[in-house]
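Let us walk through a complete example step by step. Step one is to write down the protein sequence. Step two is to encode the small molecule, pyridoxal-5'-phosphate, as a SMILES string so that its atoms and bonds are unambiguous. Step three, shown after the inputs, is the structure prediction itself.
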Amino acid sequence: MNFIPLSIPNVGRAEWELVRECLESGWVSSVGGFVSDFEEKFAKEVDANSAVATSSGTAALHIALKMAGVEYDDEVILPSLTFIAPANAVRYLGGWPTFVDVDERTMQMDSDKVATFLKNDCIRVKGVLTNKHTRRRVVGVLPVHILGHPVDLDPILCLAEEYGLFVIQDATESLGSSYKKRKIGSEGVSCFSFNGNKLITTGGGGMITFQNKEMADRARYLTTQAKDDAVEFIHHEVGFNYRLTNIQAAMGVAQLDRVQEFISRKKAIHQCYVYELANLSDCSIIDQSSWAESGFWLNTMRITRKDKDRKLVHELLKAASIETRPLWQPLHLSVAHEGSWFNDCKVSEVLYRQCLNLPSSTGLCDDDLKRVVSVLKDIFC
Ligand SMILES: Cc1ncc(COP(=O)(O)O)c(C=O)c1O
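Step three: the predicted structure of the complex.
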């Protein structure tokens, strides 16, 4: 019985060819034609003005937050239900993530909870928006488009405008998704990831997209050790070694050429799960909202049966050589972020207990997909 993984890279001939071309050219480090090619193609793909390649999605978030002006003890509003990286990036700058709950249907940051926090838990102190419990300045909001599906952005953008907050989008899991026909990455500042399990991969890597070339130039400067004079090595501020290498970018260019093929396969896998598992009682596949076009990075099953919880289902699938993964421990419960403010995040806790991500690799063949479906039907029959 072959092992069916959760989400693995799909690497073809073109990736080998371009990486070989890169190695033969000798331009293997952060300078080289593939880096700018990848940035230009990526910006075009998501309808952004400019894109800046970084060494990881986490590095992209760190730089975006730094550029937004996050300082020591500032608070940034995040969803509790997300991978930990965006919260860590806030902490790198001495700031604090402030966690709000997610919407039960989409699993994404709940704008009503953001509004409640701003209205009930914040006050103006000498004109500065302040968390009245922690007395810390509240400076921004960081919606995370988890699992391929976009956040309901418009209410969050309105709140940000009303309260004078910056918005940085964590789009690391949602390349290929759209919100009300607007591509994720096409507005404001968004961060992407190309680690091994993402829709496209460069092994490790990230991208920040901007609507403004000056901001992109600033990000490029900060990610390249803030070098002011490349001959004399003069620096006027502390920078970072956060640039993507030319080898990784070569792989990225080849992967990006296949992005539509990957999205089509992700959609087909999702449709198969929704259709085949529609009649199982007390479990469902989380579907996309009417205003969204999901990239379907990972398919999530919600299990509300009393006799079989998601831990048992995970074990049963594991015994059948099928890899699944729960969501993340909600971050308001994470010891790593103790000291952060949070409001009631009960929905995140329930979803964490009940949800399981199913195999969703773009290379998942029909026979393997049928096997996953059939094992699930056996478990739940
Ligand atoms: C929601 C989210 N944010 C940030 C990251 C960080 O990206 P990277 O692993 O490229 O640093 C990831 C992925 O790994 C992620 O899933």
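Step four is interpretation. The CA atoms of residues 75 and 138 lie 5 Å apart.
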